[in-house]
Amino acid sequence: MRRHELTDSQWHLIAPLLPRHGRTAKLGDRNFVNAVVYLLKTGTPWRDLPERFGNWKTIFNRFNNWSKRGHWKRIFEALHMEVDETGSLVDATIVRAHLDAAGGKGGSRAMTWVVHVVDSPRKSTQLSTPRGDRSTSS
Are 59 and 53 in contact (CB under 8 A)? Predict the structure, then answer.
């Protein structure tokens, strides 16, 4: 058994709770759950998942499907673990901010105006020739 994997006693608690429909995993359900545990404990990106767990994309797709179908929630509830409704996975990939957070279109209508008053000379200079002395040659 490796550092970030389930022990035999932990696996025996979880194994009966896993869904039993659809295709069987090529590398097994325990390997899949160990891959998810590894990701959650280390915070590594999906693409950096060690090869011993299999193709990262396959594991991600299965994880995503289980999440959408509520399998993880049922497992946590059966194990009497508290489920955080707002989010319980920290992933090392990029999270995009909502447009409101960046002040983009549709963002907050409140505007803070800042006025800079600088006591400095004008950027343009006065004409050295009086206006009446200028020639209007064409």
Answer: yes
Using the predicted structure, report yes or no on whether residue 96 has a pLDDT greater than 70: no
* C-beta separation of 57 from 109 below 8 A: no
* Residue scoring higher pLDDT (61 or 109): 61
DSSP assigned state of 93: S
CB 27 within 8 A of CB 54: yes
* CB-based contact 92:49 (threshold 8 Å): no
137 part of a folded domain:
no
* Chain CA centroid to CA 118, Å: 43
First to last CA, the chain: 95
Is residue 55 situated within a structural domain? yes
Q: Give a yes or no: residue 47 inside a domain.
A: yes
Tally the domains of the chain: 1
pLDDT digits (tens, 9 = 90+) for 39-49: 988 888 999 99
Domain-located, residue 70: yes
Three-state secondary structure call for residue 131: helix
CB contact at 8 A, 73 and 83? yes
Structural domain containing residue 63: 8-78
